[in-house]
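Q&A log
Question type: sequence-to-structure
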Amino acid sequence: MLTTIHPKLPMRNKEITRDYYVNSLGFRDMGTTDYEGYLMLGTDDIDTLYQSLLEKGVAIHPAGALARKPWGQQEFALLDPDNNLLTFGQSV
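Response status: OK
Response body:
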């Protein structure tokens, strides 16, 4: 099960990106750092996360709806404001 992710993502504006992850995706702000392009995210329930994002109107990637994959993962994907593809997965 996906519980933590530490991506280093390119971003044009750290505040806009932070706002998207906290207010649109519902992640908790774990504090700030002076490191450029660093975010820390975590979740422990992919079904609830997916449903809550749909309810908030977050755009899911056209080819990224929540689905069970042949490699033993339940996954969905979306693009952040800087067009970084984010795939969320949970072992099934």
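Response note: The chain has one domain: 14-91.
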